[in-house]
Amino acid sequence: MAQGTPIIEIENLSVAFGPKKVIDGLSFTVERGEILGVIGPSGSGKSVTLRAIIGLLPKAGGKVRVFGTDYDNLGPAGRRATERRWGVLFQQGALFSALTVLENIEFPMREHFSMSARMRREIARYKIDLVGLPPEAAHLYPSELSGGMIKRAALARALALDPEILFLDEPTAGLDPIGAARFDELVVSLRDMLGLTVYMVTHDLDSLAAACDRIVALGDGRLLKAGTMADMLASDDPWLNDYFKGPRARHLEKLDDGK
Fold first, then answer.
1. In what order do the strands lie in the sheet with 6-17?
2. What whole-number percentage of the chain has pLDDT above 90?
3. For the ranges 11-15, 55-59, 253-257, which has the lowest average pLDDT?
4. Alpha carbon distance 69, 77 (integer Å)
């Protein structure tokens, strides 16, 4: 659970595509040990913010501190060391189609560590088991996997380097309700077991209710609100009201645990 210590600090972040600012003066923190859900309308900058945090998009302004250090001020060696401390699951899984599941999971280890092929295989098989995939999935290619298996294989690869932070971009998108619920349970279980901090971009109301300790809501590249589910339900913001109190969210109004 969250320990009240920021592990990610976003201060006045701005990201622009040409003359258009997609993120404009965004500030919030992610606490160590929490599962933070990041929501917002399409085009609000959810995935852009994630990519700016991990250095895949340049910043037009502001700062991002991870593990207490400004990522932009690090040299190549410092950035590489920091990147080893996080894992990323992109929306479509982004598995290498020409590699098996086992080889996909081994790939980050090849890039970052010097170890024997036998050790890589043993670790990769452990990660396959950790995310609930059957052992025989190790030798399958992404084209042979179901949607749910792709998500779990991509999660195993994200966990390959034993990260402290896990970034998830729409992890339940495309999954049926049962598969999505099982994935949410897996994320919570892994957080508790491994002491992870999870930054999860999502549109899934059930994921927010089942997995997230806090929620950050974005709108037009700015912060609408940050807080618990109870805070979101109490807000008078029109978009938040539509999102959390619309016909697809009736069950959320029954939540009274402050989550």
1. 20-31, 6-17, 61-66, 69-70
2. 72
3. 253-257
4. 14
